[in-house]
Predict the structure.
Amino acid sequence: MGSLIGILILIADIYAIIKIAQSSAEPLKKALWIVGVILFPVVGLIAWYLAGPGGKN
């Protein structure tokens, strides 16, 4: 069960990194968000979802 949760978090993090890279945010903000998601997979993913670069239009 733990490995399934890990795989789901990995998939969600990869999705977040792709979306961050495609956003219209400044390059420095993109880089900081990507580093945050990589270093803190769960917390970074939640933070990106709530307040990520590019805003929710």
